[in-house]
Every structure is written in structure tokens, then in C-alpha cells.
Amino acid sequence: MEFGPIWRAMMRNKTGAILIALQIAVTMAIMVNAISIMQERGRMMARPSGVDEHNIFSIASVGFAENFNERVTIEEDLAALRAMPGVVNAIQSNSVPLSGGGWSMGLQTEPGENIEGTEVALYFVDEHAIDTFGLNLLAGENFSATDVTWRERSATDWPDKTIITYAMAEALYPDDPDSALGKTVYIADVQPLTITGIIERMQAPWNGWDGVERVMLTPSHTLFGATRYIIRAEPGMRDALMPQVEELLAERNKDRIVRSMRSMDEVRERSYRADSGMIRILTFTIILLIAVTSLGIVGLASFSVNRRTRQIGTRRALGASKVAVLRYFMTENLIISCVGVLLGAALTIGLNMLMIETFSLTRIAWYLVPMAMLLLLIIGQAAVFGPARRASLVPPAVATRTV
Amino acid sequence: MFSYYLKLGWLSIRRNPLLSTLMVVAIAVGIGACMTIITVNYVMSSNPIPQKSDQLFYVQLDSWDPNDYHDEGFEPPDQMTYLDAMALMKAGKAYRQVASNRSALVLEPQGDGERPFSVDTRNTWADFFPMFDLRFIYGSGWDDSADHNLERVVVLSKELNERVFGGEDSVGRSVRLNGMDFQVVGVMDEFLPVPKFYDVTNGAFNEPEELYIPFNIAVEYELPRNGNTNCWKMPDGDGFDAFLNSECAWIQFWAELRSDEEKQEYMDFLTAYTEQQKELGRFPRPLNNRLSDVMEWMESQEVVEDDARVMLGLSLLFLLVCLLNTIGLLLAKFMGKSTDISLRRALGASRSSLFVQHMIESGLIGLGGGVLGLGLAWLGLRGIEMLFGEFIENLVGMDWVMVLSAIGLAIVSALLAGLYPTWRACSIAPASQLKIQ
After folding, report:
1. What's the complex ipTM?
2. Which residues from B are below 8 Å from A15, CB to CB?
3. Whole-model pTM?
4. Same domain flag for B317 and B250
5. Do B327 and A19 touch (CB under 8 A)?
6. Which of B253, B274, B300 finishes a domain?
7. Residues B219, B220, B225: CA angle, nearest 5 degrees
8. Same structural domain for residues B30 and B91?
């Protein structure tokens, strides 16, 4: 192989080679760390919310008139909604998963004021919640209609039953989460609740919260003035139902306004908009980066081919084959790229350590490094192929021409 | 000489159109990416009220749970309880003070057939308007007596006044809010602080509210609240009064203090207040009150998001890649001119004049890259606006500072990139390259 001569020739004019190698190294560091961030966001967005997202939508109802009777309105609204063709079920609640606004409380396994409880997201619902959200009841039983109370905005007493998620059971009883059913936990320091059911999964309203799957359902209708109806449609019926529901509620009672009607799909999209935006920006950045780096390689290689035209012609005249010339430039690039990706691996890990420290990002997956090295080697070879081919087409006669 | 070098530079750029285009594009892409992200960061971290940001202080009183500690230790709550806010308002020890919170009211238009709609509202005090330098198109804010006499007055934003009154002078007219009539006393001019510093708890980049009513009215009539509410212990008993007297924090409190002495006096006052409350059995934690001016408060609330900072780092590295690229290409280009250079040296051009000539050529490429990069940054900002929607609308405007810094950054980058290649070009010996011809 011509490895030796290529290396020596490069050493005579190393700046260009060093620049390319550096460029490849920094490109790799950015690329791998960006991909790692994208993977992290992707994993976060892939977490299931536990509810039947595609068929659920919600709409807010805000009473304003002085003679607004909230309790009657809610009872009648729910009866009307549940009677609509195409509606599977409907409930009144204070929030929906991923919506960004909701209630949280602390639950503790022992009563007492100076105990730090386990934080939990709370949804006020009635006995139709499991069907409306499409939740999977693992153990215990659903609320019954008689469990459901009516709660004023600043009430402080709690109904004595609750259904919690399995994740909450794990947080309360880390040693034996399955034993949670039937146990008594305490809310607001001292008020006892019996866990009467455990659901497989349901997300809290806050996607960035580390306890995102710690949820409790409380059997209460709320009389907070503003509320939210959650409606589950039969598959395929949601989009047709949404305007009908809005019209029905707006017309049924003029003492309130309805607003913010959103499908769960839209709630999810809004909830993760920053993350999906970040993923797209990073994807775009990586594409641009690779384009800039490969254009740089093309530019420099073309230039070096142009400069060495006479030299190439001489080599050809002395018997070097086209393939040999092609191979010369390809090998040259391979050497430079190898140095670049090795340096890049070090830079990548350094940058990642810095990001972990500053922004508490996760560590890069080990396989990203070799994959990126391989990818950049291939890109380098592809970029240099054009100029190298042009070099191989230089006719031997050039050697004699310009002198 | 300068114009002669400009001309030489231009000719040289035109001689290798491919290489020159590559360089301009490389710089443009780098500058475009960088400036897009820098602009977002710049706006996020900008001072929303520069004329008096060092005189406005966010007040935090540590009335919180002695058992609730986080990794970072005891941080005072980011909002204030009703009890404390009212005590501080009543004491009136600051030059100006404002307790406020967010809510939403339903406005019923007078005309037939128009449906009532919900309006974001701020419950606040008379000092709010002079304290934050708000300008009015019609009328003015209300005065202290309106706060104390529970007058049902309201200030509208310009937009809302256009929606409800068609932009006319509506002072003296009435609007119906949640079933009650309020009298308009003022219509504000455009007001769009970015970040929305006076209430970062409920979204630092949200739009300001469209309606302002006296805080006392909202309490008196138990109007709804919709901002963040945090309680470390449940209210004692049911009902609104129990809530008001609870340890729930839901109010933002600002004080205007015009000098260090005033600030010190106010801090002493807060300490005395805390001591007095401790005697009543409140404030179980050690003394930890805070006065943060606007920029300190923005920083402690981490208004600039981590994502924006990560992107900033990555985009600067991206610019580095583009510059490495440009250095390589410039080097190739200048080396390609070695015959030229050695001829000029042989004819008497000094090193320094060659240096100036090549730096000018690099600068020209930088200027081209900067102008093109500005266009790309504009596109980038539109892209970001599209991706993030209304959350970010107020963050994607470029002002003159940004435009000039984009071009400046491009030229400086190109000159830096040109240094080494130029130095190499200048060290070519006279006539050394002439022999082989």
C-alpha cells in the first residue's frame, strides 16, 4: 500500500489535514450529543399517558352569572353528554393528563403533621372515570355512585375512598406495592383514605415531573366555578362530536361560557411542543453540520487535486493506474478522517460530561460513538470520491503540457 | 489603498467562484444558526424594564413548611400568602408596593348576539401602574382611594378596548364582568414586557393580562383565581375566609425602593415583621426573607430555559465548525495564489501591505457571509416560531443590536479565520514561486 508515501506527503503540508480532522472531530461531538438529547426527548414523549388518547377530548365550562347553579348544570350537562350518540362516556374533572395545570396533594402512610408525604397528582372524578379515560383497573373495584361527593372550592374534608396508580402504590409501599389495596393512607396530614382500587397507569398533568405516574382519583364532583368535561367518543367519532358538544353545551345554559375545547391528541402535542421542537431543530442542525463538513472536504480535496494536476499526470505517465490515483486520494481522506473521529470520540465524551454537569442531561449510549465514527468515515469517503475521481481522470499527457 | 485592496479582493473572490461561494455559505450557515439561537437567548435574558429594574424588588417571605426541604435547602416560597401580603400593603413601608395575582373573568359584551368571553385579568393595586411605568392612551390607573373604598373600577388593555369599544375613548363607560358592572378608568397603551417579569410564576413568556381590577374587589366578591396556588398546610376549616387566613401562597409582591438605604430599611422592616409573626406561631423556619431586583429575580427563577442554553452551546460549536471550514478553504485559496503573491513581493509589495490586502479579502467574505447569514437567521427564527407556536412569539424578534452583532460577528469570525492563511501567504518568499514557470 501507499500508506507511507501518503502519510509523508501529508506531513509536508499538514495544516489542511489538521483543519479537516478538527472539523470532523467537532462535528462528531455535536452530532452525538445532539442525537443523545433527541433520544432522551423521544423516550420521554413515548411514555404512555394511560388513557385512550385518540378518542378523548375535553372542554372547559366557566360559570359567570349570579344565578348560575353549578351543581344542577353539571348534573344536566353530564346526562346530556352521556346520552349523545357516539359518546362512550363522559365525566366532569378538574384536569386531564399532560394539560399542565392541576392539583397535587401529599399522601402519607402514617397520620401526623410532621411527616413528609408522597406527592401525588389528584383528579376529582366520579364512577364513570375508569370507562371515560379507558383506564385499566388492576385490583379492587371502581367507585360507586354513592361514593361521589360534591366539593366546594375551599372545602377541607375528603371522601374516604381513593383509587391510585400502581406507580403511586410503589411509592407508598416500596417493599410490597401489591399490598396497597385496602390499606389506609392519610391526606392533609390526618384524614384517612382507604385505597379501594389500583389502576395500571395514568399520567399526571405535568410531563416534566419526576412522579409523573403518581396519580390518585378522588370521588368528588367539584363546584369550583370553572370546570372541565372529559368525553370519550366511539372510535372514529371524535372529530364529528367535538363541534356538536361545543354547541350543545353553549346552547344548554347561557349562564356560563365554554372554552378551550381540545382533543387529547392536541393536549399531548402542546405538552411536548418544546421537546418535539428541540428534536426538529437538532435534526436540522445535524443535517446542516454534515453538509458543511462534507462541502469543506469536497472544497479542499478539489483544490488539492487542482494543485496537483501536473503531479498526478506525471504519476500516470510513469505507469500509475487510474485506480491507484483514486485510491491515493481516498486513502488520504481515510487517514485524516480516522484521526478526526478518534479525536472526535474524546471530544464527544468531554462535551457530554460537561452537559451532564451543567444541564443534568443523561449519558450518551455507548453505541452512538462507534456508529458516529463509522458514519463520518463513510461521509468523508463519499465527499472525497468526486474530486478523487476527477483526479483519476487526469490524462498522463498533462505531465508534459505546461512545462 | 483601501479601495484598491477592496478591488483586488473582489477580483480574487471572483477568480475562484466555487471556493468563494463555499466560504461565504459556510460563514452564512454558521452565523445564521448562531444568531437564531443567540436572539432567542438574548430576548429571554433581556431586561424588561431597564429604566428602573434596579429599583423594583420582588419580596419573598419564608413562611414555609419546616419539614419540606429540597436538595437545594430551604428556599423561601416564590409567592406570598394573603395574610402577609395584606400586612405589607397596610404597613406601606416602601415607596410603592403592589400585591397582585392572576385570574380570569367573563366579560359580557353589551351588544346583542355577542357571546360572553373569558378575559385574563390581574387583581392589583393603584401603585401597579406608576410602579411599572405603564402608559395610557385614555384616562389613567385608579388611585389609592379606589382600593380602600372598594370602587368597581377597571383598566383595559389597548387590544381589549378595541374589541369591546372599537378603540374609542371608553373612560367612564361600564363593562360587565362576572355579572357585575365595572367603570372604565383607563385604557393602557401597548404593554408587552418580555419576560413578563412581574409574574414569572405563571409563565415568564405569557402575554400580559388584558384587564386590571382592584385586588380588594376580587377578594370582596370572591372572584375566581386561576394562577398557581401552593399550600403547605390545609386551611383551618372550610370557606373563603379560611382560605384567606391560610398558609397558601398565591400572591406576587413587588416593592419599589429607590436607594440602598430604602432597601436596607425595608429589609429591616421585613425582619421585624417576621419576628413578630414568629411570636404568633407562624414562620416556623429560620429567618430567610429575600429582596431581589428584577434581573436577580429573573435569574433565580431560571427564566432562560436550559434548552435555550444547550442550543446556544451547540450553535457556538457549530460556528466553530464553519470557521474551521473557512480557514481550510482560505488557506487553500491563498496558497493557490502563491505565484501571484511572490510576483507582487518581487515587484516590491511589502509584507504588511500583502497582509492588509488579504485581511480585506477575508473581511469581504465575512461581510458576504454576514449578510446572507442574517437572512438565514431570519428564516431560522420563523422556523422556531412555527415549531413552538404561541409560546415563543415574543422571543423571535430581531432588533438593531442583533442585526449589527450578526454582521459584526461574521466579519470578526472571517478575519479570525483569515489570520493564519494570511500569515502563511505573507511568508511566501519573493520570486520563490516564479522559477518553475
Report:
1. 0.82
2. 331, 420, 424
3. 0.82
4. no
5. yes
6. B300
7. 30
8. no
